[in-house]
Amino acid sequence: MSSSRKMKILIVDDEELTSELAMTFLEKHGFSVVIARDGEAAISMAHSENPDLILLDVVLPVIDGFTVCKKLKECDIFRNTPILMFTAKGFGSDMAAGEAVGADEYIVKPFSGKALVAIIRKHLQMSDLKEE
């Protein structure tokens, strides 16, 4: 992978403050960021933007995050795209549901910016290895 291209992250969250905070932090660390505010927009933007990683809230308008994750992971082009569930719902049952639909990791809000960047970088490196 060329290091000159910025890795693109799709943030899917209906909470503007959370998504803007994550976007600011990720852009500061060299990522390109696009934002979707609901599940339907997330699916559409994933197809039009082809992100390297998706940061996906569970509780979303129109289509919930679990359904979005399942639909995207069923598409060949997103099968190896890391999808990190990003939610305030940190219950074991929610984590299991995320795992069941193909989520690669479950990040509980509120999040540490440094930890978020480290987790994202880890998953992007892992997805690079899968494509080689």
Outline the structure in words:
The protein has 132 residues and is α/β, with parallel strands linked by helices. It has one domain (8-127): Response regulator (Rossmann fold), CATH 3.40.50.2300. Helices cover 46% and strands 17% of the residues. It contains five helices and five strands; from the N terminus they run βαβαβαβαβα. It is globular. The protein starts with 7 loop residues before the first strand and ends with a helix.
Features:
globular; alpha/beta; 132 residues
Task: Spell out the blueprint of helices and strands.
Blueprint: E1 8-12, H1 16-28, E2 32-36, H2 39-49, E3 53-56, H3 65-73, E4 83-87, H4 92-100, E5 105-108, H5 113-131
Parallel strand pairs: 1-2, 1-3, 3-4, 4-5
Describe the structure concisely for a colleague:
The protein has helices at residues 16-28, 39-49, 65-73, 92-100, 113-131, and strands spanning 8-12, 32-36, 53-56, 83-87, 105-108.
Whole-number count of domains? 1
Shape label: globular
Second CATH tier, the architecture: 3-Layer(aba) Sandwich
Number of helices: 5
